[in-house]
Write a structure and sequence with these properties.
homodimer; about 220 residues; alpha+beta; Jelly Rolls; Arc Repressor Mutant, subunit A; 2 domains; 4-stranded antiparallel beta sheet; 10 helices; about 25% strand
Chain lengths: ~220, ~220
């Protein structure tokens, strides 16, 4: 039953029941309170995590307290592989945004999963390739677009799991600013521009996409 | 003998002789002339490449002909895995900078290598994690540093294989500008600032690092 439950979430969807049972048998479970850090940038990293429930923010901070959010992870997403595959030090911080349960897998068991379960490796490779693609697109986008294009891109990215018509999502301006790695004022201005253009609506922390096609063309898709 | 030759280059260093023979037996070889495109962004991608000899530039272009170089690849480096692991379309362009010989591996054989050779998967995972780390650092660096810090970072990154003392490398200002995804003028200004500070010397296309420690601290390392 656990196996079939797990198969509903993205990380496990493409894995065989045998693979999932294997992961389950070697993983511990840890619970994090809202706001609790899972690890901080520069920590020594020895564990790989899969989100069982909840929401995890991956972000970095640089001198002056400026933050940049790389991703919000949810049920079935994984993180922490970077310091098991490359440098031993965490390259970003991870924090629970709400109460979250995580599967925790040690460095040794992580290597064993890769060596013994090709589907697990393939899944990891697909996800890393996808994250790399996004990071490269972000570099491009920072070089070639202005804040409006980047905001349009961020809204599309953050709302891609929402299936209501029109698309609605709860997000506050500080979160959006951190996602773009900028401050609140330019984001607030850009939001107002999109509102005046009839492309989105935004009030009391709820963003509604009114014109998806224009948002896409602004994002350069 | 081919196997022992291959073991000298980075991609093959950690692979067993059996793995290398396997790669070799299923790979074709193609030769590219200086300036020849291996593939262009948006092409359908069906092959994975390993550099046997030569130098390959990975870059992207966006409206207006602006270019951004992601990497220079040399003997033993690989590329082309992104459209075999994710979307089928090339996310960047690849071009030979000099005459280059490439091992060419089809989509089907690439999948087979992953499924049958865990060391090959591990090697791919390590490299993707490393590239992702660099891309994230670049996003950070674009958000938090000015052009001087980014130039310092690029010089350190591009010179990390040079082992002369002091470190010397041939690179022209246009290449540096493309690496940073900017134009020649700000790069030229930043180079002059570093020269005046006694941190580098640069003349006739040759860059010499005079003060590695200060370069590192400017790069935020």
């Amino acid at each position: 039953m656990v196996t079939s439950l797990l198969k509903q979430v993205s990380f496990f969807k493409d894995l065989s029941n045998g693979d999932i049972r294997k992961i389950f048998s070697i993983a511990g479970i840890k619970i994090y309170a809202p706001g609790q850090m899972v690890f901080a940038k520069e920590d020594l990293g020895n564990n790989f995590f899969i989100v069982k429930t909840g929401r995890i923010k991956i972000f970095t901070t640089v001198g002056g307290g400026k933050k940049k959010t790389f991703a919000y992870l949810k049920k079935g997403d994984f993180f922490g592989e970077m310091s098991l595959l490359g440098g031993r030090v965490r390259s970003a911080s991870a924090q629970a945004m709400e109460e979250s349960e995580l599967f925790v897998i040690s460095r040794k068991n992580f290597k064993r999963l890769i060596c013994e379960n090709p589907d697990f490796s393939l899944k990891l490779l697909h996800t890393l390739a996808d994250r790399l693609h996004k990071a490269n697109k972000e570099v491009e986008s920072m070089l070639f677009h202005n804040i409006l294009g980047r905001l349009a891109e961020a809204i599309l990215e953050l709302s891609k799991d929402k299936h209501t018509k029109p698309v609605k999502m709860a997000i506050d301006q500080n979160e959006l600013a951190q996602y773009l790695g900028t401050t609140r004022v330019p984001v607030c201005r850009a939001i107002n521009t999109l509102k005046r253009g009839g492309i989105i609506d935004y009030r009391r922390g709820e963003l509604v996409i009114l014109n998806q096609a224009r948002l896409q063309s602004m994002a350069g898709n």
